[in-house]
Amino acid sequence: MPNGIPSHDTFNRVFSSIDSEQFESFFMEWVTILVKLHPKEVIAIDGKTIRGAKSAGKKSPIHMVSAWAAQNNLVLGQTKVDDKSNEITAIPKLLEVLAIEDTVITIDAMGCQNEIADAIIGKKADYILAVKENQSQLLEKVMDEFRFGKHIEQHLSEGVDHGRIETRVCMVLSDFQFIDHNALKKWKGLKSVVKIESTREIKNSDRAPETATRYYITSMEAKAEDFQKAIRAHWGIENKLHWTLDVAFCEDASRKRTGNSAQNFSILNKIALNLLKNEKTAKVGVKGKRFKAALSNAYLLKVLNL
């Protein structure tokens, strides 16, 4: 630029003034050009707190809810959780603007709500929703289904990663005995319940194995192996999105908080992440690609698809 690179204060003023909702809508329009969703592709929805964006006098920092396409390995969209609200109200807003027909939406227990299930079915998609104590009556009925059920399909999965041995047993049941007509009417499209029993142990360690049991409701009728893969794919939003934003982009350390700057920089980070994930020639991680783009204008132009 004729007068040099603008100061960080100038960048902060510009990004704090940009209309976040407009910026998010343009981001999602761009993503629809970039991505081609596969039939029954898992789209994981989850929230992340930008901890450095907490302002003095506020009870909590900014919290963003994002949608992650597991097979495409890309962010589809995001929305900010209102200051006096939570993910329950933010998720329907995000679903409303996403093109998710013929996909599988996975959400943790916070998103296990009637309205969210209705919204997903209304968008001609399927859901897999985790069930915990926040839906105590439903959880009790699902547990009873597996406690007394007879026609339970199972699939065993074993894996070794970073010195950990993990065994996962997925059980699926569609012939309900305790989930009655009223419950089926309340949970639109409900067809199956899923139970995952996992055991994790560390090789060459005296520590006792860690065990966990998780329950899900779903609008799908599929094999236990398919549910095993779909539920496993949900954790990509933690490992490939949230973790990458913190490690490669230092998002949690960011102190941007004035106006819309934190929300807009979150969108900017996700634009950069999608571009870097879409660039396949460099066999390094996202952080390495960022450094390479900083050193080479030719590689930068390749990342920008110019």
Summarize the structure.
This protein has 306 residues and is of the alpha+beta class.
How many strands, which pairing sense, and closed or not: the largest β-sheet? Answer: 9 strands, mixed
What percentage of residues falls in helices of 4 or more residues? 25-40%
* Count of structural domains: 1
Strand tally: 9
Runs with pLDDT <50, length 5+?
none
The whole-number mean of residue pLDDT values reads: 90
CATH architecture: Alpha-Beta Complex
Straight-line distance between termini: 20 Å
Strands of the widest sheet, in order across it, are 3-2-1-4-5-9-8-7-6
**How much of the polypeptide forms β-strand, as a percent range?**
15-25%
Q: For this structure, what is the CATH class?
A: Alpha Beta
Question: What is the name of the CATH topology?
Answer: Transposase Inhibitor Protein From Tn5, Chain A, domain 1
3D architecture notes:
This protein is of the alpha+beta class. The chain has one domain: Transposase Inhibitor Protein From Tn5, Chain A, domain 1 (Alpha-Beta Complex). It is built from eleven helices and nine strands. Strands 3-2-1-4-5-9-8-7-6 form a nine-stranded mixed sheet, with helices on both faces. The longest helix is centred in the C-terminal third of the chain and has 18 residues, at 261-278. It is globular and about 75 Å long. The two termini are 20 Å apart.
Structural features:
306 residues, alpha+beta, Transposase Inhibitor Protein From Tn5, Chain A, domain 1, nine-stranded mixed sheet, globular
